[in-house]
Specification:
Elements (H helix, E strand, L loop, with lengths): L4 H14 L2 H12 L6 H8 L5 H21 L5 H7 L2 H9 L3 H7 L6 H8 L2 H22 L1
Amino acid sequence: MKPTATDAELILKLYDLRREERMRKARDYYAFKFFPGSYEELTKIMSARGSDENAYIRQVTSYWDMAAAFVVQGALNAELFYETCGEMWLVYTKMKPFLPQLRKEYAPTYFQNVEKVAEGTEAGRARVEMMVKRLEAMKAAAAK
């Protein structure tokens, strides 16, 4: 199905939300400083209520799960989303190793919309594989 003007408007609204000051800080933290090496390290941050890091993770992950829900529910053209929301793959790739345990211990549906979008097509799965490699390089650079 071809994207509509309504799809384009929604993409622009999603982009505009990403520019909000607190969201920019959250995205910066998530992309360049957040590299959990274990489930315990992740849950330590996720359970540190009141900390900026906890707020940043919640803000970024809930934002992308909401945006992916638009695709899953058919409110937003999937192809247009794939072309314009590349950051979601980084966000997903960082959480992917921890999803089974997070779903067992926190919420059974945690990050499900993002997973459906990221893993729902062969192209999406290939993008996740590419992002895994890129993430390793980012992790190494951050460790220096």
